[in-house]
Amino acid sequence: MYSILNMKGIILAGGSGSRLHPITLAVSKQLLPVGDKPMIYYPLSVLMLADIREILIITTPHDLPQFQRLLGDGSDLGLHIDYAEQPKPNGIAEAFVIGADHIGDDSVALVLGDNIFHGPSFSKVLAKEREELDGCLLFGYEVHDPERYGVGETDKEGMLISIEEKPSRPRSNRAITGLYFYANDVVARAAELRPSARGELEITDLNRIYLEDGRARLRALGRGFAWLDTGTPESLLQAAQYVRTLEERQGVRIACVEEVALRKGFIGPEECHRLGALMDSSDYGRYVMTIADEVAAAR
């Protein structure tokens, strides 16, 4: 069922979403709509595009039942989805401590639940980086205000030579996005991390360990790619506008997980059509059925 080079997936969908209060006082940030679908569909589709089918969603005890109601065990999409609790936002790197049993002996991809990625041939990019993984792989994106982000500096081969968190004088304009690939030893390395002054297991501290070992690379997402962080009301609106504009002009839907599952061969046209029929009162559901019918007719 799974690739020989197996990689597990983790979506970190915890936190309080305080920058989006009062909206997120009642609902998880990752369940808010971006366009016509919940935010978590976007990071979920990234893992699916990387041919990852065993996924752990880490969220708060309060929000966990809502994610289960939305996604279930993932079997409708040809996935296996498990859930785990992160009672407090103790840092991104804690995901590897919480998810140690889920990762097992495999490599792992971690994606933040409020990050949106979109670009040409993204599935091929992910597949290539997954096959060549040896240590830590970060994905970088050029921004005009790198002082707001974690920033990675690389040599000509793409190996990391420095990582800075919100530097006043950035050495690079490549922000480190919320998508990370790690070899299996990340489980042991995360378990040995010391909490920062904020009491968190910092992802930057974890990445520096790989940098010092000479096993950290940064893959730049070039022109044509979009990376959106939806953590504020302004960025959430911008993401929705971006998605709506592309979908209306191109007639396709970004992060339609049913379509991704179909085109990746996780499910067949009949299963896909059935999922669309459950939502046939919406344009989204009718789109899913149309795609299923088109794929079935082409076979």
TrEMBL record:
It holds the Pfam family NTP_transferase. It comes from the Bacteria. It catalyses: dTTP + alpha-D-glucose 1-phosphate + H(+) = dTDP-alpha-D-glucose + diphosphate. Gene3D superfamilies: Spore Coat Polysaccharide Biosynthesis Protein SpsA, Chain A. InterPro entries: G1P_thy_trans_s, NTP_transferase_dom, Nucleotide-diphossugar_trans. PANTHER family: GLUCOSE-1-PHOSPHATE THYMIDYLYLTRANSFERASE, GLUCOSE-1-PHOSPHATE THYMIDYLYLTRANSFERASE 1. Belongs to the glucose-1-phosphate thymidylyltransferase family. This is Glucose-1-phosphate thymidylyltransferase. The lineage of its organism: Bacteria, Bacillati, Actinomycetota, Actinomycetes, Kitasatosporales.
